[in-house]
Design a protein that fits this description.
Radius of gyration: 18 Å
Distance between the termini: 21 Å
Order of helices and strands: EEEHEHEEEHEHEHEHHEEEHH
Strand order of the largest sheet: 5-4-1-8-9-10-11-12-13
Number of strands: 13
Largest sheet: 9 strands, mixed
Helix content: 25-40%
Structural class: alpha/beta
Strand content: 15-25%
Number of helices: 9
Shape: globular
Length: 306
């Protein structure tokens, strides 16, 4: 069982500029929810811990997750605040987004509830959203400490963006604090730069940047690192060996959800007893399938596992 902790939300996407946009497409989102949905469709037992509003969007999210086989019994409903909304401007010139934080930021859990939600769990997965508010950070640290004491692996997706944090900047201190407990992490090069404050020259070759930042994650306490580098694919490291994982997409229609698909494929591989590098290769295959569709709400019924 993988426990996914973090944001559930709706993406409102436009291809027009925000200043005069009139047409938006609503897609259910939130990286942990996407990964949970993909994982469940691949046969990985998945549980979601989050908070949504008692509104039609929240109900839609719950229904979609449950239909995919995700355990939604620990998703809380907020009777005051609505489900979190992210407005996305998908224009090629200046892609941008802004967030209206709602129910997700008020997730609560007592100590005895932490014990219950961790029953049967082998991996706890959380995203950077859980570090973006003091109360969420405190809850995440409590969950992670209990999980570590129980021998449960911890996965941290450091999808860090300045806009998520109350101070307007990625709180590297909190990120580094959580990396100390992390078994698996899958940063992008952009994430690495945001966390380690562009310690390398902007003119550094990609290969040099990959090696440098992978080592920085290991030094921070992460046991297994997968660093994604866009069209170049990913680089997986167990601290002893660095292996290039080439992209597997035949064609790219939309990159949305690719990283979430990679995580799900990796979890499938790990639950099947694959070694870390083989699990990452499978993650790349799932990501390659997802980028052939528009948006992250991709059914995996047509994906051939073997």
């Amino acid at each position: 069982m993988v426990l996914f902790v973090g944001e559930l939300l709706a993406d409102l996407i436009t291809e027009e500029r925000f200043q005069n946009a009139e047409n938006f497409v609503l897609k259910i989102g939130g990286s942990p929810g996407n990964i949970a949905r993909y994982s469940a469709q691949l046969g990985v037992p998945s549980r979601m811990l989050s908070r949504v509003g008692s509104d039609p969007i929240g109900e839609r999210i719950l229904k979609r997750l449950a239909e995919s086989g995700v355990d939604v019994s620990y998703i809380q409903k907020d009777n005051i605040l609505g489900t979190t909304l992210v407005f996305v401007q998908k224009t090629p010139e200046s892609p941008d987004f802004f967030v209206i934080r709602g129910a997700d930021q008020y997730l609560k859990l007592a100590d005895d509830e932490i014990e219950r939600v961790l029953e049967g769990v082998k991996v706890v997965h959380f995203s950077c959203w859980m570090l973006s508010r003091c109360n969420l950070f405190d809850l995440t640290k409590r969950i992670v400490k209990v999980a570590s004491e129980k021998g449960i692996s911890v996965s941290f997706d450091p999808n860090c963006r300045d806009k998520l944090f109350e101070c307007g900047k990625v709180d590297s201190e909190k990120v580094l604090d959580m990396l100390r407990y992390t078994t698996y992490s899958k940063p992008s090069l952009d994430d690495a730069v945001a966390i380690f404050k562009n310690e390398l020259s902007v003119n550094s070759p990609v290969e040099s940047a990959v090696k440098y930042y992978v080592e920085r994650f290991h030094q921070s306490g992460v046991k297994y690192v997968v660093l994604t580098a866009g069209k170049l694919g990913a680089y997986a490291s167990d601290g002893k060996e660095l292996v290039h994982i080439p992209p597997s997409a035949k064609s790219v229609v939309d990159a949305t959800g690719a990283g979430d698909g990679f995580w799900a494929g990796m979890y499938y591989g790990l639950t099947k007893g694959y070694d870390f590098f083989k699990a990452c290769e499978f993650g790349s295959k799932v990501a390659g399938h997802i980028v052939g569709f528009v948006g992250a709400d991709v059914p995996l019924s047509e994906f051939k596992i073997e």
